[in-house]
Design a protein that fits this description.
It is a single chain. By secondary structure, the chain is an all-alpha fold. It has a domain at 1-266. Helices cover 65% and strands 2% of the residues. It is built from 13 helices and 2 strands. It has helices spanning 2-7, 18-68, 74-98, 100-103, 115-123, 141-161, 163-166, 173-198, 203-219, 231-256, 268-287, 289-299, 339-364; strands at residues 319-321, 330-332. Strands 1-2 form a two-stranded antiparallel ribbon. Strand 1 and strand 2 (330-332) form a beta hairpin. Helix 2 packs parallel to helix 10 (231-256), helix 3 packs antiparallel against helix 11 and helix 3 (74-98) packs parallel to helix 12. It is elongated, with a radius of gyration of 29 Å.
Length: 381
């Protein structure tokens, strides 16, 4: 604007009338509103599918535990442990799809997948030598990664229909249908997320909207050339328009893909960890701490290591609970000024608690799960 004012100091030479600029204004309004609306719709769609996935994974565990809680024999506990582990595994592998572009870790390499479930997944992938002749396209890691949650969903359905032979008394038909419907909802939510990831934003529409937006913003100063008001007022008005339009464009770009490590992206893995914590508490209420620790071991290799969610953005650091292995000690923060010192004391207490827990297990012969396929009391899972 200042350059135009200098060039047109002797009289208006380069300018655009407001009537000619009005036509571009209507085109920009239509394209830009469509662009932002599309980004918000995609964001809400992803949020809905992700929320449904978390909800149904929790409900599946609660349904299984509540419907079979009256059976307290070892086989029934193994059956519940298998179903709950596979439900958590389905959620973990579904989240692994969303974070693959950031972590570049395929689902068959995540530490939570182990035991017979890992063997089943590896034996049913297209890169397995016995399955290569079924591939209609050249297999790639990304496509194989998308197949893992589907295989885990099949294992979930197999476990559900085995209730007739693994429980003292088969479930009612309505109960079996309820469990199957929860799995169906999980698969549906995962399919929606997969569709979201595999359907890109229409590039021609984005390109056209951005082109007209830049054209509109760069020609706005030409309208003020013949205006006799203050040049500084013109500069301020142009700054506000540019800041508003370009800010909305940047927000739309960020909303197009809400999965990743950006500050406004969904913390999908952290939210999945909170669902795992709910599962551990549910299992502990029905089957006791021993089986909850068994599930926690399969989902987290070290029993004495705190879960990531205890230091995640979802949980406040002022009222933080240690693990059951650390005696349920509550860590309280008295003030923000003492935060740094209290965190240092926390780390020291945690280290001492871990050492004490290890020594106690060595002295009392507490169980260690060497094989994740085996339950704490039985050799079959």
């Amino acid at each position: 604007m200042l350059l135009l004012s200098y060039v047109n100091a002797d009289g208006p030479k380069y300018y655009i009338t407001s009537e000619g600029h009005n036509f571009i204004r209507f085109v920009v309004a239509f394209l830009f509103v469509s662009r932002v609306t599309m980004a918000l719709d995609r964001f809400n769609e992803a949020r809905g599918h992700l929320g449904k996935l978390y909800q149904e994974s929790r409900e599946l565990v609660q349904y299984v535990c509540s419907m079979t809680a009256k059976y307290q024999d070892e086989k029934s506990k193994e059956y519940r442990a298998e179903l709950t582990y596979r439900s958590m595994l389905f959620l973990r592998t579904a989240v692994g799809i969303l974070d693959y572009e950031t972590t570049h870790t395929p689902n068959w390499k995540v530490p939570e997948l182990n035991g017979v479930e890992l063997d089943y997944v590896l034996n049913n992938m297209l890169f397995h030598p016995q399955n290569k002749h079924y591939a209609m396209l050249k297999p790639c890691e990304y496509e194989e990664n998308l197949r893992v949650p589907i295989l885990i969903g099949l294992l979930l359905r197999k476990s559900i229909v085995e209730h007739a032979t693994r429980l003292p008394k088969p479930l009612e038909i309505q109960a079996e249908l309820q469990l199957c419907s929860s799995v169906d909802a999980c698969i549906s939510a995962y399919t929606g997320l997969r569709k979201f990831k595999s359907t890109p934003v229409p590039f021609p529409l984005i390109q056209m909207a951005r082109t007209f937006l830049f054209l509109y913003l760069f020609t706005v100063p030409l309208i003020f050339v013949k205006d006799k008001s203050s040049v500084y007022a013109h500069c301020f008005a142009i700054f506000l328009m540019t800041y508003g339009f370009m800010g909305l464009e940047v927000i739309a770009i960020a909303l197009d893909n809400p999965f990743g490590d950006d500050p406004i992206d969904f913390k999908s893995l952290a939210m999945a960890h909170t669902a795992f914590e709910d599962t551990y508490l549910t299992v502990m209420d029905i089957d006791g701490q021993e089986w909850a620790d068994f599930l926690r071991y399969r989902m987290n290799d070290n029993l004495t290591e705190r879960l990531n969610t205890e230091q995640s953005w979802l949980l406040a650091r002022k009222d933080r609970f240690a693990d059951l292995m650390m005696g349920n000690t509550v860590y309280k923060r008295e003030s923000e000024a003492a935060l740094a010192q209290s965190l240092l004391q926390d780390e020291q207490q945690v280290r001492l608690a871990r050492e004490a827990a290890e020594n106690k297990k060595k002295k009392q012969g507490r169980f260690h799960f060497k094989n994740p396929r085996k339950s704490p009391r039985s050799s079959n899972l």
